[in-house]
Amino acid sequence: MAGRVVLITGGSRGIGAAAARRFAAGGDKVVVNYCRSREQAEALAAELGGMAVQADVSDPAQVGKMVDNVLEKFCQLDILICNAGIAQQKLFGDLTDEDWRRMFAVNVDGMFYTIRAALPHFIHRKAGKILTLSSMWGQVGGSCEVAYSASKSAVIGLTKALAKELGPSGITVNCVSPGVIDTEMNANLTAEDLAALAEETPLGRTGRPEEVAEALWYLASPGANFITGQILAPNGGLII
Ligand code: NAP
Q: Is domain 5-232 in CATH 3.40.50.720, yes or no?
């Protein structure tokens, strides 16, 4: 199975970067998409012998170019990891139109554009694995994170519906739905907030990006060939 081509959106930092390292360690060729973190993405791609490609996933033209670029370079795409995402903590009443639209533009529209761009290639080959990133807040809802929670619930709906639609074409679609993971996305949480979340978690701690990468790795492996439309939740038991 080594030598697959894997495109990871938002691969420059956090969970996406850990996934890039995991797949490269397993012998795959990784394409690290980034939006703003060019230096980090290029350094990571160089370290892993992969390729860095800039695209704001909320822009369908940029996404189309990115996928064309990957197919031109590798003539193949085996795994698509739709990981790029943003979060925001705000009271519902303080959310602006712009807050709401940006959340959906990146977390939901971005996924739509990326999958749509890669799909003709997957369908042509009657093969492919699509992995989406939701969040435990998309499963149970998070206070002061209504826009984020709604966008991540949409990801779950997209995953399940698309799995049904693409199964007959030999393509699997699965979702990884992490709990609290130590990345810059949670940089705004205080040490006390993080300690409280760790205490609430049955396994007694927050998670590491590498642990989410392992879930992605498994769902992309041949061992998961009969799994589609499912949600795998590396969350330490915080929601069950
Ligand atoms: P992070 O450390 O904040 O990294 C976010 C990544 O997304 C970066 O690589 C960033 O790229 C990229 N990104 C953001 N906007 C983008 C855009 N418009 N176009 C392309 N890339 C964009 O976040 P993370 O914790 O690794 O989260 C990764 C995914 O896991 C997200 O979907 C997040 O919702 C989900 N998740 C995270 C947690 C958690 O606790 N950390 C929990 C559940 C789910 P640039 O830096 O290049 O702009």
A: yes
